[in-house]
Amino acid sequence: MSKNTSYTFVVIDDHDSVVEGTCIVLKGEYPDAKILTASTADKVESLIAETQPNLMVMDLSIPSEPDRESHISTGLDLLTGILTTHTALNVVIQSAHVKALIRLKPLIDAHKGGFTISDKSAPSHEMLKKVDWALQGLVFTPQEMRVGLEIKREWMTMLELAFKEGLTDKLIAQKMNVSERTVRHYWTRTQDALGVYPEEGFNIRVHTHNKARQAGLLD
Amino acid sequence: MLVTIGWVTTLYWVIRRWSHQRQAWQWWQQQQACQQHRSAESIRDGLLQQTFGLTRYLEGLSQAACSETISGHPTEHSADRPESYSKLTDTWVARSRSLYQSLEALSNDLSPPFVEDSLSLALQLAIKDWNQSRPELTIRYHLPSEWIDNSPADNRRILPLVMTLLTVLIPKNSSGQQLEVTLNKKVTPHDSQTCQLTFKLTCNLQTQQQPSIQGVELMHLKEIFHSLVTGRLDISKAEGSLICRLSWPETHTLAP
Fold first, then answer.
1. In this predicted complex, what is the ipTM?
2. I need a surface site. Which of A10, A34, A219, B104 has the fewest CB within 10 A?
């Protein structure tokens, strides 16, 4: 079903067939969206600064400028700059090199906007799901990018305040001396670590509670 | 006196030649790994991208065919299409995805994911993939989440050796076995760090025969491991378990 919200998307990829394929899928789901494209890293910063997009769909292996070879390092450097400068931008990484993102893990963990990873082998509907999650500000990183369960201390505190003391996000924020937005950020990171994502008919907080208990984080 | 000098000189030349040979093997192995990495990147940057474009194109055809069927309003071209058109496009979408996955697996074989960044993650992924052909084998991991100090060149040498070792130890169709994988670092008495990877294979002794620890392949692996990473491969049996311990000196990557 198509969505009528008029978003601005930026698609970055150096392969015409990939850009075309991605734009067709996005247009099918978001017919009113304005979609801008870039094939080299040198164009991206200014494009994002000028258009302030709602979402960026990006490949990691791209050339720095026209007629140069594609390199993952170019994409990773560009992404590092974007995540540092545009801290609330929603990002979908669509690449055949997604595992290289492990190098930016601390930066991804700290990013305030949505951040999802869509492997290029994924079918269109899976890619659209990752776009939707990123637009909602959620985080999705593949489980294989983690060794075991990686939960930070502040996420653990939030889980205890929410599920042991039954506090709302507002009260959790007050208790932890952070903003409510930061608490929401903790939720998305914790849910990603636990592998909890939005699912039709499921209450995500209840699902998080169950998963946290299964993982031994809560009694 | 002359005999002693003769022996010392000979010994010196033997050690020198052995050291040169080892360096040559390490260099050759590194060249091979680099070549394989370039081939893998070429697949990822070329064939995988083209296959992605093709898959999206086919998906578009499939969706168009599907919506025509649902709406009952065929386009000017659809009258020429057989009824099975939608199924046909679905089949080709599946084939295209399968081609993508095969190419991805090939590129991962040539250059394993995470090998440049984290031996823990590279091991975890490689062993999980390998485990798919041995579904009866239960594996428990004790891997550190941070493993950033190891040299990528060492990782590229160690990973194929480890996977060959596991394949020699645990052939396909083995059942009733448990494998524990532990990776850690130990400080030696000389204050240098040694990386240690331990495999503990526990067999159901009533149904399984444990592999021989004196096999020719294991002997070869010990030699190769020593030559390529200056490491040791120790294999022993204890309380119904086979324990393989690979240890090698930690080498730090210099900042570029």
1. 0.79
2. A219
